[in-house]
Design brief:
Strand content: 5-15%
Number of domains: 1
Structural class: alpha/beta
Helix content: 40-55%
Order of helices and strands: HEHHEHHEHEHHHEEH
Distance between the termini: 39 Å
CATH architecture: 3-Layer(aba) Sandwich
Shape: globular
CATH topology: Undecaprenyl pyrophosphate synthetase
CATH superfamily: Decaprenyl diphosphate synthase-like
Radius of gyration: 19 Å
Strand order of the largest sheet: 3-4-2-1-5-6
């Protein structure tokens, strides 16, 4: 029965893929990778944090689907500021090791097309995690194949906007610009340029797994005009079929 089900799903995925040929696919897909611990419990693991390892590894598989379809910009929500600061220390340490070993290190391989960008307050991360991400950013900086992977870690959308305005004001002060002059000439573009994501394109489609129907502070500024797609499947169980369904829904929206 499992073999038959798998065959049916693969055939369905193939049909969906064929229908997407020639369709206007999103250029930038952002994803909230939610449900790792719940997936582990569902699968019968004694330690629910095992789900983080499967979830981290799955990131690269999903990135491969995007590259295959010509989607060259992806942003992945790995951990919020609260995830890092408020969760049990052992779980956070485990998650940070996975970020270093399962997310950052594979990007160093020469066959990876992705250039890494990091979005968030990296100062809340352990030194080893900051170092691993910085190493991967520097090592991939000159990749010119046009594939960009942004990892949102130590991230909160309200904090991002606050930091952007603060940095804008600091920059103005260093240049001798008065507060009134800043206020008189303040624009959306000026604030946007100081976001963690800078001038990179805003997402066309945001996918959240696990069945939750909320953004949880993810890309509050950037996703204001994005299409939203909520999927009941937990992140480690998020299949290519589920991804293609999200893309199909995107292509059918006016």
């Amino acid at each position: 029965m499992t073999v038959l089900t798998d065959l049916v799903r693969r055939l369905h995925a193939r049909r969906l893929r064929a229908r997407l040929v020639g369709a206007a696919l999103p250029r930038h897909v952002a994803m909230v990778m939610d449900g790792n611990r719940r997936w582990a419990r569902q699968m019968g693991f004694d330690d629910p944090s095992v789900g983080h390892r499967y979830g981290a590894a799955h990131l690269h598989e999903v990135a491969g689907w995007c590259a295959e379809l010509g989607i060259r910009q992806i942003t992945l929500f790995v951990a919020s500021v609260d995830n890092v600061r408020k969760r049990e220390s052992g779980e956070v340490a485990h998650l940070m090791r996975l970020v270093e070993e399962v997310i950052a290190e594979p990007l160093l391989r020469p066959d990876s097309p992705w250039r890494l960008h990091v979005a968030g307050r990296t100062e809340v991360l352990p030194e080893s995690t900051r170092h691993a991400l910085k190493l991967a950013e520097d090592a991939t900086r000159d990749r010119d194949r046009g594939f960009h992977l942004t990892v949102a870690i130590g991230y909160d959308g309200r904090v991002e906007i606050t930091d952007a305005v603060r940095n804008l004001l600091h920059e103005a002060a260093e240049n001798g610009v008065t507060l009134r002059e800043v206020a008189d000439h303040l624009t959306e573009e000026a604030i946007g340029a100081h976001l963690y994501t800078g001038s990179r394109p805003h997402p066309d489609l945001v996918i959240r797994t696990s069945g939750e129907r909320r953004m949880s502070g993810f890309l509050l500024w950037q996703a204001v005009h994005s299409e939203l797609y909520f999927c009941d499947v937990y992140w480690p169980g998020f299949r290519k079929l589920d991804f293609l369904r999200a893309l199909r829904t995107y292509t059918t929206r006016p």
